[in-house]
What does this fold into?
Amino acid sequence: MAIPVTTTGLPEATAGVSAPGRRSALNRVTKAIRTNRKATIGVVLMAIFIFVALFPGLLAHQDPNLVTTHVFTHPSAAHWLGTDNLGRDVYAQVIDGTRNVLVLALAVGLLTTVVAMLIGVAAAYLGGVWDSVLNFVTDVLLVIPLFPLLIIVAAYLPGAGNNVLILVLTFTGWSYTARQLRSQAQSLRNRDFLLAARVRGERSLYIIVVEILPTMTSLLLASFLNNALYAVLAGSGLQFIGIGNTNNVSWGTTLYWAQQNNALGTGLYAWVIVPGACIALLGAAFAFINYAFDEIGNPALRPLTAAKVRKAAEASTKRRLTSHGARAS
Amino acid sequence: MRFIIRRAGFFLLTLFAALSLNFFLPRIMPGNPINNIISKLHNVTPAQEQAIEHALGINNTASIWQQYLTYLGNTAQGKLGLSVGLGGEPVSQAIRAALPYTLGLVGITTILAFIIGTAIGAIAAWRRGSRLDSALPPLFVFTTAIPFFWVGMMLILIFSSVLGVLPSYGAFPLGAVPSFSLSFIGQVAQYAILPALTLLITSIGGWVLTMRNTMVTTLTEDYVRMARAKGLPPSKIMVGYAARNAILPNLTGFAMSLGFVVSGAVLVEYVFNYPGLGNLLLSAVNNVDYPLMQGLFLIITVAVLVAILLSDIATAILDPRTRTAS
It folds into this structure.
């Protein structure tokens, strides 16, 4: 029944983490970010986007919604990325749209993780009929093609704004994480520290929040990053096909207008390249941070240093020699 | 065998859930679908309004459970209703015309992405620590984060707008009559290059990364060391021992990736105006054509379920553990 999920070593990663003091954990994270190149790239990109989202006024002085008569212009000193079909400044739209996408990503990442946590942990902890029912719902959502479902749900809500988009993406996006969290919680169920808590007479809520959840921090973090990436891609995809409010300033919406006005056919390339590249870079920021945490948690995946490669090669030739020797004797 | 039967049972239940979703979604959503349609069309006569209600299967006199049963019965007989937007064409007919394009595009690119991606992942894991292995994972982490539709647009920019070597619109030249002639098939293949390349670029990364990460683990297993100790040729160890065992999680991850590719296909078909199911779905959304939307969602779900079931059967054949487990 269960769909086997290809974890890249996450459960092993979480098993050993048992909060040996907050400060040292924080130190380890900062050290990891500095030494792991993928983490560095991801964090730097993310910092840039957060800065742009917080202070768009520092970078663009034009109103992104200002309609002018200068329509379909090529990039110039006045309009760095040209203007769109209504004469709006594309550069101002890209800068201003950052906040929309970032809010979408963070909100969906957070909400899906919370929903998945509630459902996955509840299923594992309550067991019995609850487990079967919740598990079935999770499995169904896992195999139903989500994007078509998203399109249809959103189509029933014409002109919906960002909040509705967040809710719809959350509704369809929690199942994969719930499955991972459930199996993690199940593997913990009969551990001594949980049995002890139960013997002490602690309430279920206390056990779930204080005893079970802290063991899942890295899994929760991975799920947050994964789902934020999903929100960036799926949300921009929906905006690109014109679902939701097409007057919102957002990268996906800017691309929607570019496609509607045949920007590629008329040579207005900057209108297409820049917003799309922003989506790709923000997505890459989430993906790189996630992959880096995966590597930190699972040493087997880490890139080998040159010294280690040499050592491993020596060891294997030595092994080969001894095995040949063994066969000869 | 029991494993397969259990999976098939689960898929029947899932199908039932998808049908129920199809039926109840328009009814729990705010707003009235009929009003949405009528506001989109102009000058609707009461007779037309009734026809639309009939097409939607909304019969206000019957109880909701009776409507539900009628809907399930009709769907079981393949009656998907009439399209509202396409001038009353039966939904099943519209779907039949679009299905081959999506099946061809998604099917071929998925198989190609699986083969190429798995091979690259296996080689990267085998040459662990080489320059290749340190360059590939970051590259493919990046490609999994690029939006499908934008890759499509960039390919159009390069190959159609600037170089002008490949077509970017539709599945065959305007005016060509679909037939089974060699020249027509050649044209279809030429028109499919850019959409297929788009899907390939964005979906291959997942296969590479899963394969590489799993094979890095299997390479440390005792049976690989044993094979080395026996003095087997490296190519045999790589393919027959390490890759063969690492490929299983890749196969079971098929379910996840398929949903990913299907959603990508919807956007890619839109960008290239490719006459498949995804494009049809979007035009149905634009025309507020609920019967067509419901029929398409159903067909896409069935196609995905069948593909996952096939990959489950393949896994059960290749991996004895799945047969005994659960």
Remarks:
- The first helix of chain A runs from residue 10 to 15.
